[in-house]
Amino acid sequence: MRKSHFIVVIAHSMHGRMSRLRVPHYAIHVAISALILGAVLTVGLFSQYVRMEMKSRTFQTLRAEKEDLQRKYDRLVEISDQRDRQLESLGALAAEVSLAFGIKHHTEGGTETQKGLSPSNFFSDSLDKYDFLQQVNLSTDNGTSIWKWLQNTTPSIWPVQGRLSSSFGKRTDPFRGTNSFHAGVDVTCKHGTPIVATADGVVTHSGWFAQYGKRVILDHGRNGLSSLYAHMSEFFVRPGQIVRRGEVIGRVGRTGKATSAHLHYEVRYRGTPLNPYKYLRRPVDSRLGFQTAD
Fold it and tell me: Per DSSP, which regions of 105-177 are E strands?
């Protein structure tokens, strides 16, 4: 007859006594089943934990990417708004110049109005007018030029909102520690702060130039004055473009030879640096960020 139990013999090491322990078959089966079940549960819980951890990391990565994309989107919206304002200014100026000089530029449709145009068509139309005006000699027989219609040609506002950190004239060079001549003033402010033109003018340079980094120079016409904006993170104008006082031309950065984010600003008369401080007398406008012309 088949036994329904196992006999386990236990011998005592000191007394030599032997004990017998009967272990039923079902107890062994239960123990083995419990071990298998425990192992399966352990593996299942561990795999569930690993999956949750991977999902958590994926979620954190996606959230970081979403925040980064949101910041980029907000920046693009801001740049788009600036481009729209620049296009409006460009369109208005093109219309003024065309009217003043009697220049007529007919497009394929034969219309000169911008009403009802889509943003893309308005953009193309504005650039078309700008490129056309670039090719036109804006002067008449009696010597009248475009500067007649640009009246605010003397720099008289702050180019950026910030703190004056370095003045015009002699100073200690921050890199070499020796005495040097500072041809402008430095205005310290947050990276990306908008920079505006301090007077009406024409862009003569926009690009990288040696220690100035990204630089923009505006010619202010017959008065012989020009203004220079350096260490910019980006600029929104190109050579030949006409800008108005208070118009955003770029953003503050630390390109070129700079220890921190700031704007290096110069005013020159026929190429000779002047102290810009006397041209920084207009207060800040709370709506535009800068005071425009009266």
Answer: 163-166, 169-172
Q: Do residues 262 and 187 make contact, with C-beta atoms less than 8 angstroms apart?
A: yes
Q: What is the pLDDT of residue 195?
A: 95
Q: How confident is the model at residue 288 (pLDDT cuts 50, 70, 90)?
A: very low
Residue 9 host element (H or E): strand 5-11
DSSP for residue 238: -
Helix (H, G, I), strand (E, B) or coil at 249: strand
Query: H/E element holding 4?
Result: none
Helices (H), 102-173: 119-134
Structural domains in the chain plus CATH codes: 75-106+117-148 (no CATH), 152-279 (2.70.70.10)
In terms of phi and psi (left: phi > 0; alpha: psi -120 to 50; beta: otherwise), the region of 21 is: beta
Residue type, 128: D
Contact 213, 257 (CB under 8 A): yes
CA angle in degrees (0–180, nearest 5) for 170-269-131: 125
Rounded average pLDDT over 43-61: 89
E strand or H helix at 30 = helix 25-101
Q: Is the pTM of this model over 0.70?
A: no
- As a whole number of angstroms, the distance between CA 250 and CA 216 comes to 9
Q: Which two tokens stand for residue 177?
A: 């520690």
- Distance (Å, rounded) from C-alpha 107 to C-alpha 125? 9
